[in-house]
Amino acid sequence: MIRKLTVQDHKTVMDFLSEEPSINLFIIGDIEAFGYETDFQELWGEFHEDGKLNAVLLRYFESFIPYAKGEFDVQGFADLICNYSATPIMSGKASIVEQFEHVKGIELGPKKATFFAECRELTPINHTEYNIKIATIDDVDRILNLRMKIDEFSLSKEGRKMIVQDIENGTGRTYFIEDNKQIIACASTAAENSASAMIVGVCTHKNFRNNGLATAIMQKLIGDVLAEGRILCLFYDNPAAGRIYKRLGFQDIGKWTMYRKYKTTIKNK
Question: What pLDDT was estimated at residue 162?
Fold first, then answer.
């Protein structure tokens, strides 16, 4: 049986999700931030006949994340999703979301699969003398200025607003190193919740690479977050980056797959 979840189900839901806190980082974070009763966020649960929770589906605007620990009612979740969008944004553990590829009624957009890794214990690489700072609102424009110089980054129009919201709400932080008042390397967290946090935006200015700046920042960031009792996780698709993360204590725990919206083609005039 699938039904909508409410605040009365909260303990059951959190116990269910907390067995894999990294995989469920986004669902846990959104529940803690927005609860069960908003117009842009809803949650459904599939229950066994004995009342035990078997699977969860999160809707955040037009984005959906399903989670289950075994077989679940894929078609039932698909029918719910189609009530909102026939071409939804969907992401989640690869073995779960890829089951929707062959379901009638849903047309999934471009697919991107990445490795998913988590860190429960820091492996220090070396001592650093770098002065690593934690960003405030006053540093946001300098962070964006660095990110705009990174070829691999694609910045959203809402990029500044998102960083500011993370800092103000405590759902994200950025650590950085500067040189002559210019930020030359940084790393951030996002989707921080009571159990876990995601590392994003690791970058170094091209003129300052191969000096261990990003590694030093990551080491500091990881140590601080783990000391708060949270697990760290991240996505990566670059094997070279993956090797660095693993030296710091990250371990692969699976793959994460996202299906994005189809891009609208704009003809040149």
Answer: 84
